[in-house]
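Q: My labmate handed me this sequence with no annotations at all. I'd like to see what the chain might look like in three dimensions before we decide whether it's worth expressing. Could you predict it?
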Amino acid sequence: MNIGIIGKLNSKEAFEMSCELASWLAERDVTVYFDNELGDLGWGNSVDRGLISSLSDIVVVLGGDGTFLAAARLVSESDIPLLGVNLGRLGFLTEIGREEIYPMMEQLLSGDFEIEERNMLSVTILRGDERLGEFLVLNDAVVNKGAVARIIDLQIVLDGSYITTFKADGLIISTPTGSTAYSLSAGGPIVYPTLPVAIITPICPHILTNRPLVVSNKSNIKVKISASDITDVFLTLDGRGGIPLRKGDVIEVVKAEHSVKVIKSPFIDYIRILKAKLSWGEGYVQE
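A: Here is what I predict for the chain of 287 residues:
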């Protein structure tokens, strides 16, 4: 078996854990490939992060949910399962705690593990007849404005039918996986991560009837920037970058062809993670 290791950059803890894990795997005759930006582990093969998925049967991600999102974009087209190990607080995507990593690795090496598929979204920027770029997201695509920008008018078209125009500070289109990220903070619903839907959530809407909308992930969603005098408006993808937008630009969002295969924790499930993160059930006494 070949196992790749991707860790949180500039993290001493991720580097130390990578060294320990690479040594442990090498003792079991597992070929290890690790991200060369982590540093010199002394074990395994140091390769460019972008090559790890083509060399590995499984990729282990050491860090937090942000590191997992970056790894997911790298491996989504290669059908390689990801195991998320959280080195800090419990994460929605990095379910394995530090103390659970070696029992989990034993299960991986024996083939005793379960995979859960998480859908991604394909996001395209259209400017007239020009396609400015196409991107994959596991969490969300966000249209937002700078601190002093005006309210944005965002026309929503679903499968060719005009729905409404949101007047808001921005808009989030998220997967169920991303429903517990920025969308939740903006008042969107929590959606179980394997459901085949997408969530459209306005950010600070200025009309009471502008409410979050849950649609099929088979839908074609188009968002047009329609207000005049638009400045300082950006598209962010899984929290990275900031692509400037103009009046008339259209953001097209559809279900991606590829999904992310997540190795499930045998120690904790999604509902227990949700309860821990949101402090649900505190003070409950079972009768």
